[in-house]
Every structure is written in C-alpha cells, then in structure tokens.
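User: Sequence recovery, please. Input:
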C-alpha cells in the first residue's frame, strides 16, 4: 500500500526552529526577548519588501511562481500581524533600547551640540534649531531643550498626537529643501528593509539640511562591525561622497550602538558613486547582510 503523503506546514521564517530562540510573548520586557522580537520583526519586514519587489519584476511571469510569491507574502503579513505589527514593534523598541542604551540617543546628540557650543551661539541670536526627528517613539525627547531646539517628530506610525504620521521617504523634496538645521536618523536607516531606500534616506537628508546643518545617525553596532557589506571605513567613504563631513563618532568594541554626527558640506565635484551602487563583499565568514546602496 502506498504511504500517505505527510503534509507539513511551512515553518515561519522567524520560528524558533530557524532562529534557535524561543518566540517572546509580545508583552515581555525581558531584554533578551525584546531583542529577539526586534530581530524577528526586521527579518519579516525585509522578506516582505523582497517579495513585494519580486511581484513587481516582470521576470516572474509564470502564474504558479507569482501565486507562490503572493501566498508567501500573505503568510509574512499574517506573521507581522500576529506579532502585533508596527505598534508592538515600537513598544518593544522603546523598552529594549532603553535597556540597551540607558536612555535615548538624544543625549548623545545634545552632548555633541554642546561640545560645539551651539546652544550658547543660538542664545546670542535668539535662534532655535529646527530639528526633524525621524522615527520618533516619544513626542518629548527634546522637551528639556525647547529653548534652543524646535523639534518636529515624525514616524510611520504615530504614538502621540504631537508626532506627525509621515514617511520620511515621501516628504516633498521641494518643500523641505535646505529647511532643517538638524535631522536625526536614530535606528531608522537599519529599519528600512531595502538597501537602496537606506541610501535614498541619506541623500534626502542631505537635500533637506541647510548648508552646515547636522545629520545625527545611530545604528546597531553589528551593522558596521559584523556586516559582509559594510565597515566603518566604507560608511565613512559613502558619507563623504554624499557630501557629509564626520564631526564626531562613538562606539566601543562589545557595545550595542554606534553614533555619528555629520555636517552637510558640498557634494564633492569628482565623486564616484560606483562603489556604492551594488553589493560588494568586504568581509567573509558568519556575518549579517546590512548594506546601504545608492
Ligand atoms: C527602532 S525605532 C527607533 C526609534 C528611536 N528613533 C530610537 O532611536 O530609539 C524605528 C522607528 O523608525 C520609524 N521609521 C522607519 N522608517 C521610517 C520612515 N521612512 N519614515 C518615518 N519613520 C520611519 C519606525 O516606524 C520606528 O518607529
């Protein structure tokens, strides 16, 4: 008698059998489970973006290929919903990042601006810095500095009426050209699933900053220390080619976060963007795939 075929359910791409770690309960504030949740969420949104891109490409013409891609996309979207979606991700991020960093990254930015005596200089002119805080989990991160910082917090999903629900990538370039004194991209570039969209984010930040304006960038440390495609030197070259001069940077071996402060300068006249237009393996071994493309 022929054996009955076993129908196994396809494993979720973030299930414990694949990641080796148990799924956290959405409400847990245990540091390792919040980190696991955040990683899982990133895996899911990256796969979702890949599948959406595949469906737009004419190369999958066969109906069954398209059908399989659509089904996988639906299943990924279900997994994202089951995890609680962007809302839960934001909640877990605010808990997890508090644990990892001992507070928000605004402290680092404020510390650096103080080193450059920016508050004192603004005081003399009665001016205030116009800050665009992209990816704001809280509305009042800069409230203590309201005398010299006029903050506009935005996010894909607003958690407070004062946070504008807005995709930075969809802001009007014309309306924002040279408008901002500071743009903060803290843990936002790594959230964006498509490497080209990450590059676009940095290019847009350049367009939207006034000349000499500041870009504050924060990334998880493994993005530069343990990526196949990104090293601190590669990031430095990429930023220079975009017209950013590094003023400060901070991370420590074994730490979790890396921070940079750049100043907008002129775009180099003989810049070469070729090295940043496709993925190049810079390190081999067991690495992550973080990459920024232009
Ligand atoms: C990990 S949280 C970072 C929050 C905070 N900036 C911090 O440093 O803790 C990333 C946030 O960026 C937001 N985000 C990602 N892409 C964005 C975009 N294109 N425009 C606006 N917000 C974005 C997400 O919705 C999410 O709330």
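Assistant: Recovered sequence (294 residues):
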């Amino acid at each position: 008698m022929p054996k009955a075929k076993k129908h196994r359910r396809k494993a979720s791409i973030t299930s414990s059998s694949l990641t080796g770690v148990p799924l956290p309960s959405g409400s847990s504030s245990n540091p390792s489970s919040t980190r696991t949740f955040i990683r899982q969420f990133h895996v899911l949104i990256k796969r979702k973006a890949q599948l959406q891109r595949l469906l737009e490409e004419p190369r999958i013409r066969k109906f069954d290929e398209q059908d399989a891609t659509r089904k996988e996309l639906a299943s990924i979207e279900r997994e994202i919903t089951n995890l609680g979606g962007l809302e839960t991700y934001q909640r877990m991020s605010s808990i997890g990042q508090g644990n990892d960093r001992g507070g928000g990254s605004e402290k680092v930015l404020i510390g650096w601006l103080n080193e450059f005596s920016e508050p004192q200089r603004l005081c003399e002119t009665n001016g205030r810095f116009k800050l665009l805080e992209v990816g704001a989990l809280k509305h009042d991160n800069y409230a203590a500095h309201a005398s010299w910082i006029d903050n506009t917090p935005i996010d894909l999903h607003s958690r407070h009426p004062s946070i504008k629900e807005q995709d930075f990538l969809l802001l009007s370039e014309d309306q924002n050209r040279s408008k901002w004194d500071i743009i903060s991209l803290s843990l936002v570039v790594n959230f964006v699933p498509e490497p080209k969209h990450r590059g676009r984010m940095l290019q847009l930040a350049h367009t939207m900053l006034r000349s000499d304006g500041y870009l504050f960038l924060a990334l998880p440390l493994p993005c530069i220390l343990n990526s196949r495609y990104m090293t601190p030197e590669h990031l430095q070259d990429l930023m220079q080619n975009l017209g950013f001069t590094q003023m400060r940077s901070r991370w420590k071996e074994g730490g979790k976060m890396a921070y940079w402060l750049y100043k907008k300068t002129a775009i180099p006249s003989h810049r070469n963007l070729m090295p940043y237009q496709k993925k190049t393996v810079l390190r081999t071994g067991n690495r992550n795939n973080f990459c920024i493309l232009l």
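The chain has two domains: 16-100, 104-276.
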